[in-house]
Specification:
Layout (H helix, E strand, L loop, with lengths): L2 H13 L14 E7 L8 H4 L4 H4 L11 H8 L2 E7 L5 H10 L22 H7 L3 E7 L20 E6 L6 E5 L2 E7 L1 H4 L7 E3 H16 L4 E6 L30 H4 L21 H27 L6 E7 L18 H4 L3 E4 L8 E8 L3 H8 L14 H5 L4 E3 L4 E4 L5 E5 L3 E6 L2 E7 L17 H17 L15
Helix pairs in contact: 8-10
């Protein structure tokens, strides 16, 4: 027995006082966020478990990536089946994630914008409460620079030495432990000494483990932002050939009968990349390889937590900034209201408070993250968030939470807005008739039931709440210009 504990024990016996009086207060929980970029939820095993076969295997029956480490986070905690980007593009979604505000209030509603420095983030709040706060990886909240590490505003992350403004080419050149050149592809590294070349996912994972080793004795908050599996679709060896023998198929929504009459919002815009063109199985094999590389990296981090007895008191989150169409609806990348673009993976483990094996079927966006995680950590703050504190849904004893809460996400500038609940999606667009989709009946998002009499009540409920929220949060575009009103 520790000497201090022994003294307390002796005093307690002598005085007849319960040992509980001398129990040390619980330690503040740590927070570890593993965040990827342009990541399709369909590539994760824990999400495939939630879907029927034709949805789980979008690229052919049995064709998938095994992700046991990310799945372990979900199985040991909770998985959210309807978690969305506030806007399915990098900068606005990331800004919402760290601030709990919709993009129009963060100063960063579109790619290339700068996050406002006068509003709190979850990291500034945790730093004020004595946490060691660190950020590793892609930031994308300070302009359009690439492979630069002199980010001026740290967003509340005191250790931002490895905060990179942006970029996705896979390799760094490193000398004496420092990045001297970024943005290197396979050809560029061919003539370099092998010891000077490191893949970004490995580099950022290594730095994460170093920081965890340094801070493991005090409350910490660390966010690791891995730039993959974003384009260019390239996985480093040996991941680049792992799926060469997999006979990948085009998604069923790529069929001509599915793409012939797409709504205008499905066309995307100049910032969303072009239509996919012919299905490229090689690109998807590389995408699968990147996901596998990420999962192995997650495994390294989880092992560190286990080996250092940190797992029970650490909140671990795995999520992404937005999805990737991966040829669904004949599109790639993001920027459209479809599930594959806007819906993101979100799994969380916190053994002290979140029951293992929990499924939450409720609509959230990245706006809800900051208020929810701070509440989970037991921190009270006077900060005004747009998002909801949903911590009670995560800590409740129910293994399944089903709610019809309505929230929304939008395209920069209000070109389209989408109201969602646990089942339905209503998309309003400046150039298109309203679309209402029953995601349970039509997960491929091909049928507009807005004018179907059976859905009149549903459509009105979503539309009325959407306009209320758009007014409340000063959403630009449609809030004061109702182009369509239900009879």
């Amino acid at each position: 027995m520790h000497a201090k504990c022994g003294i307390h024990h002796a005093i307690a016996i002598a005085m007849g006082v319960s040992l509980a009086v001398f129990a040390e207060p619980p330690k503040p929980p740590n927070l570890l966020i593993i965040h990827t970029d342009e990541h399709s939820f369909r590539t994760l095993g824990c999400y495939r478990e939630q879907m029927p076969e034709e949805q789980a295997f979008a690229w052919g029956k049995g064709n998938c990536v095994e992700t046991p480490n990310i799945d372990a986070i979900a199985h040991g905690g909770a998985i959210c089946t309807r978690f969305y980007a506030s806007s399915p593009v990098c900068t606005p979604s990331r800004a919402s994630f760290v601030t709990g505000l919709y993009p129009q209030a963060t100063g960063a509603p579109k790619n290339g914008d700068h996050l406002r420095t006068d509003i709190p983030t979850f990291a500034t709040i945790l730093r004020q409460h004595g946490y060691a706060t660190s950020y590793v990886g892609k930031w994308h909240l300070e302009g359009n620079g690439k492979y630069l590490f002199n980010v001026k505003y740290d967003g509340g992350f005191s250790d931002n030495r490895f905060m990179m403004d942006g970029g996705h080419s896979p390799y760094f050149r490193v000398k004496d432990g420092k990045v001297v050149e970024g943005g290197l592809g396979e050809r560029a590294i061919a003539s370099l000494p092998k010891e000077e070349v490191v893949h970004m996912t490995d580099y950022f994972t290594d730095r994460t483990l170093e920081i965890l080793q340094r801070d493991k004795g005090r409350p910490f908050c660390l966010m690791l932002s891995i730039p993959d599996p974003h384009t260019p679709d390239y996985a480093r060896p040996p991941y680049h050939t792992m799926y060469d023998r997999m006979d990948l198929k085009p998604p069923q929504t790529m069929a001509p009968e599915c793409t012939a009459t797409k709504p205008s919002w499905a066309q995307g815009g100049k910032d969303d990349h072009n239509e996919a063109g012919p299905f490229d199985a090689d690109d998807m094999r590389q995408y699968f390889g990147m996901v596998k590389h990420i999962d192995d990296s997650v495994g390294r981090i989880l092992k560190f937590l286990d080996d250092n007895h940190l797992a029970d008191n650490t909140i671990v989150v795995f999520t992404a900034d937005h999805g990737d169409m991966c040829f669904e609806h004949n599109r790639r990348n993001k920027g459209v209201p479809y599930e594959a673009s806007a819906r993101i993976p979100f799994v969380i483990r916190y053994p002290a408070r979140i029951p293992a094996g929990k499924t939450i079927r409720e609509a959230f966006t990245t706006v809800d993250f900051a208020p929810t995680v701070l509440a989970l950590m037991g921190l009270k703050t006077g900060t005004a968030f747009h998002g909801m504190d949903a911590s009670a849904d995560f800590t409740s004893p129910e293994k399944e939470v089903v709610k019809d809460r309505i929230t929304y996400y939008a395209k920069t500038g209000g070109w389209w807005v989408a109201a969602v609940d646990g089942r339905y999606k209503l998309v309003l667009d400046k150039q298109e008739k309203p679309w209402l989709i029953d995601l349970d009946v039509d997960p491929d998002e091909l049928v507009n039931v807005y004018t179907d009499p059976k859905y009149t009540t549903v459509a009105k409920r979503l539309q009325d709440e959407l306009f209320l929220q758009m007014k409340r949060f000063n959403e630009p575009g449609l809030a004061n210009n109702r182009p369509y009103v239900l009879e």
